[in-house]
Every structure is written in C-alpha cells, then in structure tokens.
Amino acid sequence: MAWRQICRGWRSAQRPAPGGGGALRSGAPGQPLLYCTSVQSARRRVNGVELHYRQTGHGGHAALLLPGSLGSGQTDFGPQLRSLNKERFTIVAWDPRGYGLSRPPKRDFPLDFFDRDAKDAVGLMKALNFKTFSLLGWSDGGITALIAAAKFPTAVRKLVVWGANAFVSEEDLNIYNALRDVSAWSERMRAPMRELYGDEYFAQTWQAWVDGISQFAQRPDGSICRELLPQIACPTLIVHGEKDPMVPRFHAEYLLQHIKGSRLHLMPEGKHNLHLRFAGEFNNLVEEFLCL
After folding, report:
1. Catalytically annotated residues
2. How far does CA 163 lie from the centroid of its chain?
3. How far apart are CA 156 and CA 252, in angstroms?
C-alpha cells in the first residue's frame, strides 16, 4: 500500500518519530507543523479483478469519483482529491478495469461494458464497507454512474454527472470518429495518457473505445441506458459546460427530462473537463448539493 501526502493546513503537534506520518517536520518540538492529509492508494479484488483506487478524507458521506474514457483517479480528479471537504466526505476515486492501475486485464469493450463498470464500481464501494454512497461521474464515468444509480437504488445516496450521455446519435458518431487518431490530438491532451499507458496501449485502447461506444448507435434509438433513467430515484445534479465539444447540450437536457426531480446547472465557459478548468466553482457546487 502506497501513500501520497497532500498538505491541508497547520496543526500544532510534536515532532513525529522517524518514519512516522501525519505531519511534515518543521521547527522545534511543540511548534506548529505543516499537517497533511493522506491519500491512500491501494487495490481491492472485486468481481474477479484487482481494482485500484485512491481514498482520502474521513467524513460520514462517502462519494465515489468515476473517471472518463481511459481515465483514472490520478489523471481525472486531482483537484477533487485535494480540495473536496475531507471533514464531511470520504472520497474514493477508482480506476475501472483495464484503465490506470487496474491492469491487468487489458481493457475491452463488449456491449455491456458500462453495465460491467457499474457492477464493479458498486462492488468496490461495498468491499470498502460503504453501505451507501454518492456517485460523481464524468463522461463515461457519468454513464456508469447513471446505470449504477438505476440498478442499485438502495446504495446510491446522490448522483452528480457531467459530460454524460444516455444514447449515441449520428452527431456523436461524427465527433468520436474525428478524434479516432490520437496523433491529431494536442500534446497537452496526449501527454497524461502517454505517460500512464505508453504510446501503443494508449492508441490501441482509444481506437477500441471509439468502436465500443459507436456500437450503441446500432441499438434502438442509439440507447446506452435510456430505458434506465426513469428508475433513478436519488437526487440528481446534471452539470453541463456550454462549450463542451464532446457532448452536445441536448444530452444534458435529455437527462433532465427523464430523471425525475433532477436539476441542471449550466457553466457558460465550461468545456468537457469543466471540473478541472473550473475546479473551485465545481467543487463548491458539488459540496453544496451533497450537503442538502
């Protein structure tokens, strides 16, 4: 089990013994020390695979962060792991099977891959002894969260999704295919994926993802999870960036219309990664919603 330290404030404490954790050495004994909150990095066996996750905070409200396609807790949720309120929340960010450090196995995309991820995500939280928890899902993680909330209603307290869609349209297919060749991406977008996966696994897995998401267009109404939306009973917040080039606004509006009692929050300058670009605003919005 590895640990990464994230500093959050000052605390008066005695100098720790060599090898001890909880504070950085600073000053003489009894003087204020820079206190750090740990982010636990570990694996748990769920549904026959080793799933990697990061966990921080000690609040009574557990929340699982679900990354986008090819994403991981490390690449997709740095500002949330650092800054969401650790007194109120226990925050878990997972790597779905085949992504990040949840390898092996290699990632594949059968028609039920979102359902499989939903089962894994809920299974992980239960393995970590969280009976109920909220789901915060971005992009593909948002789709997984929608399915999990519908299929495991007694486990999910609240739901936040952004950059998610319940079906694949012709317009979506055009967007996906335009992004198929990763060599055409900007270096800023490629760099974290190349670092995490290496060039070959990154390129091959992304192309497999494009094929995997595109297969839903062959289903009636392009459905990924249309039929499940009316089964979502928990309070739901939909966040949408109005400059999102990956997910058109009609997807957010569809979710709003078909999830009973849901709310839609629009971010005029937000793009697909609005939780990273506008992390402070996003985190405040999420904390307020989860605490209602």
Report:
1. 139, 244, 272
2. 11
3. 20
Q: Which of 71, 144, 137 is nearest to 114 (CA)?
A: 144
61 neighbors 90 (Cβ within 8 angstroms): yes
Q: What are phi and psi of 45, to 5 degrees?
A: -80, 125
- Please choose, from the candidates 106, 51, 96, the residue with its C-alpha nearest in 3D space to the C-alpha of residue 76: 96
pLDDT in tens, 186-220: 999 999 999 999 999 999 999 999 999 999 999 99
* Contact (Cβ atoms closer than 8 angstroms) between residue 278 and residue 189: no
The distance in angstroms from the start CA to the end CA of the chain is: 35
Helix (H, G, I), strand (E, B) or coil at 72: coil
Question: Residue 2 has which token pair?
Answer: 């590895």
- Determine whether 173 is exposed, middle or buried from the number of CB atoms within 10 Å of its CB (0-12, 13-18, 19+): middle
Give tens-digit pLDDT for 233-274: 999 999 999 999 999 999 999 999 999 999 999 999 999 999
Q: Residue 283 — pLDDT band, cuts 50, 70, 90?
A: very high
- Positions of E strands within 120-251: 133-138, 156-162, 236-241
